């Protein structure tokens, strides 16, 4: 295998970027392969993140399965069904393991030994599969890699397979959309067909429709690796502070899950504040450690060390706790970690204005905020400070006859705090592209 052939195999599988890890003696199947901190969850697709509490022989950790395959010398792909990523939040560090187990034609000769200088090549296909190839330090491939222009990203040396800059492409698209002016409200269905959109929250749908983003039910970025989020303002030239919905995950634990949404609303909801009859609402801003006056629930961060800014318990969660100590609803760190890191590693926040006379329409600003390299622990730190809060829009109508429930759980923040969620952020004028 030489470098050009490996690049072609990866490109043929829809890969665009290659991560190269020089392996240390301890990087092997017995000791696991060290990949860096928890930001690794941003780079590689993972699924089924589960928490493991510490025991006699194991440390506190999260485990995540992955769709991983080794590239063979002839370009074939050999799946490693037991490959997994393990996050030890105490440090934090992520290790890769299980990559040889039950894999036909796995590179056991190189991944079971303690030899420094081996090179592990990793890339992500357009289907979300992680592809890997390992080579000896004295191989042709290893010698060729010495001359490849690359940059350091954590423990990896990285280089691009395709000569395209996703940031530039996105900025050019947003510049085009800015210059369109007022755009009729719309949305795309899952097949890409344009539909009318008449709800107050159609600003995001309209922007996504212009970008060709169809609805997806999985936690992947929207546009060439970028998560694109719109937020409403009154002045596009001075966006100022505006409320941004960061994510809308359903609870994974608590009475909301075990007893159902109707039970949750009947016990913690309240009559509609505008006097609409036969209706219960559950809403309002819930901030950490503050009991909400209407719902009597307190938002608690369980298993997060605010002083250290780290998760201290793999079984941790964000919980709404009632006055009796019951968890009315909760979101496990394991579920939120997977969603946040992968979907928000590169995010673009676009201001918008709206009007409804005569028909609903939107226009978008030229000053956008870009955030790169996030970490779920940064999210939790801002929630501890009260800058991120839970602000649901849950309701139940026709409660005495045939109840109809609307679910909408929202974690939101003011745009002034966006920079605290990313290691790098900037405001960009899209007209410069």
How would you characterize this protein structure?
By secondary structure, the chain is α+β, with helices and mostly antiparallel strands. It folds into two domains: 3-160, At1g16640 B3 domain (Beta Barrel), CATH 2.40.330; 166-432, 2-Layer Sandwich (Alpha-Beta Plaits), CATH 3.30.70.3570. It is built from ten helices and 32 strands. The strands form eight sheets. Strands 6-5-10-9-1-12-11 form a seven-stranded mixed beta sheet, with helices on one face. Strands 13, 16, 25, 26, 27 and 32 form a six-stranded mixed beta sheet that branches. Strand 14 (186-188) and strand 15 (194-196) form a beta hairpin. The longest helix has 15 residues, at 166-180. The radius of gyration is 24 Å and the shape is globular.
Give a quick rundown of the structure.
The chain has 433 residues and is of the alpha+beta class.
Q: What secondary-structure arrangement, pairings included, does this model have?
A:
Elements: H1 3-12, E1 17-23, E2 33-36, H2 40-43, E3 47-52, E4 61-65, E5 68-71, E6 77-79, E7 84-88, E8 93-97, H3 108-111, E9 118-124, E10 130-135, H4 140-145, E11 151-153, E12 156-160, H5 166-180, E13 183-184, E14 186-188, E15 194-196, H6 202-211, E16 227-232, E17 243-247, H7 255-258, H8 261-268, E18 270-271, E19 279-283, E20 298-302, E21 304-305, E22 310-311, E23 317-321, E24 327-332, H9 333-344, E25 346-355, E26 361-364, E27 367-374, H10 376-384, E28 388-390, E29 393-397, E30 404-406, E31 411-414, E32 422-429
Parallel strand pairs: 5-10, 16-25
Antiparallel strand pairs: 1-9, 1-12, 2-8, 3-4, 4-7, 5-6, 7-8, 9-10, 11-12, 13-26, 14-15, 17-31, 18-19, 19-29, 20-23, 21-22, 23-24, 25-26, 25-27, 27-32, 28-31, 29-30
